[in-house]
Every structure is written in structure tokens, then in C-alpha cells.
């Protein structure tokens, strides 16, 4: 029986899973992200920590939580946790892959369609009482999506789910840049492996699906925007810092690209003030890639199950720090 701290409100089902195992739970019932000092105070003496992607769990926090054995992140991304530090301290870290793949790919298309066909603007137009008659030269003419070229950066599970929608639903040509070639994407969706520069120059739409690492930070910089088509639309549902937001604002202002549809931001929850003003070419969403009721519930339950297994000393199904796992196996 262990004590677990949960950094934010969760579904009842999560608590049920943990309580059924006899664990004691303490929850931050507010919607507030706890500053490190408060988080440490609440999590002190606990063996398990269930956290969200906006809780920063670094080595300083870990050092102040010597009882910690398992960190279960309710997210597929885990750039908020120092994995090396956790591994060095023998702390298991888990995430929630797979269950949000299709939901996130759906949102990519919602954003892509919204930006290309200018849906948010059209919605505002109607609400402002401006829809007087149908016109051939409608003020909200957008651009076509079908048969266009979609560039996917990072062809993991979500990238492939996006490629499926693009080719099967919209007859798009899919090109991709990834750390390795993806046979399934090439065979099933005809995705073509290209260099990053080729992807930038050939794509009508670019969708980002890489994790945030030192390598991918600001992958989309002034230099990258200069290589893109001036009709291109950038979609980011991965992590904000992969895009240099200031460079993006400049690129849109200078007409280097047509626009962007963003679900993630460099400094969430703050958003570059210029992006907020760009109602004509920018669609914004508050990091809702996985935000369907079904998926969020699946993610949270998966996180609870990871926690249960980790606390039993088993290998949790979604262990992130594999090195820790192999060390444990060699020690057996
Ligand atoms: C969402 O951004 C996630 O990483 O799950």
C-alpha cells in the first residue's frame, strides 16, 4: 500500500483503480499548477506521483522527494520530466501512448480544415450579423485541401494516423521527414521519405509530430520559414517550442507562409500577442489534441494502471526510462 499524490483533479475512475489496490491518495483539487515548492510539500513522503504535462518534474524536485518510486505522466509527451535524473535516482517514469493517437490526428485535420477553409473567421462573420447574401467572391474563400501535398515531420504513431486520413480521406500526397524510414507509412499510405529541406519547399501543409528535444527545439526557425511555400500552412499539435513563435509571427506578417493552426505554444498558457491578433490566417486551440471525453478518460486510467504496476515493483506497461528497466533486469 502506497501513498500517491495527484497534481490535479482527475476522473473518479482513476481514484477507483488506485483505491482498489489499497493506495492512499492526496489530490490537488484546484485547477492551479502547483509551484515546485508547493508540489514538493504535498508530494513529500509519497511513493507515487501522478502528474500532467505542465508539471515540471526536474532533478531539484526529485532530490526533495526521496521516497518517490514512480512518476506517472498523464500525457504521451514527457518533456516536462527529467528522464535522465529519474533514471539515475531509480524512479520509474511512465506515459500514455497509443490511446490518444487517433483523437490527436482528428484534431490535426480539424485545424488543417479550419485554417484552409477559414472556419473560425466565417463563424465570427455570421455572429457579427455580416452574412447578407451568397457571393461568388465570398470574403472567406480559402484554399483546397484534397490532392495537395502534406508534409509530416515525425512519422511516429500520430504522424501515421494523420497520413492515413490525408491519403484515404483527402487523396493527398504525403511526404515525410523522420528520424528513420517508416515502412508501414510508405507501403500503406504511399508516404515519401524526403529531407527536411525538401519537405519545407514541397508542402502545401506541414504537420509537426516530433517530441520536444534539444534537437527539435526551434526546428521551425526563420531559416525554415524562408524555405516554405508562401501559400503553406503550418499545423502544430506536438509541442510549442518546436516552433520559434517570434519567427513564425514574422513569417506570416512578411507573407513567407500563408498561416498556421496551433494547438501548442512556446510558453503555455501565454501566447504571442501578435498571434492573437492574426484572426485571418491563424487558428488557435488551447492544447486540446487529446481532449475528447473518451480519450482523456483512457489516458487517465492508463496512467493509474501504470502507477499500480510500478508500485508493485513490476514493469509498468508504458515505462519511458527503459534503461532503468534493463538495469533492473540485469540485477535480477
Ligand atoms: C499531449 O500533448 C500529450 O503529450 O499527451
Key traits:
single chain; 332 residues; alpha/beta; Rossmann fold; 7-stranded parallel sheet; 5-stranded parallel sheet; binds glyoxylic acid
What would your notes on this structure say?
This protein has 332 residues and is an alpha/beta fold. The chain folds into 2 domains: 133 residues, 3-Layer(aba) Sandwich (Rossmann fold), CATH 3.40.50.720; 184 residues, Rossmann fold (3-Layer(aba) Sandwich). It is 39% helix and 14% strand. It is built from 14 helices and 12 strands. The strands form 2 sheets. A 7-stranded parallel beta sheet has the order 8-7-6-9-10-11-12, with helices on both faces. Helix 10 links the parallel strand 9 and strand 10. Helix 7 runs parallel beside helix 8. The C terminus is likely disordered. Bound molecules: glyoxylic acid. The site of glyoxylic acid has 7 residues, from loops.
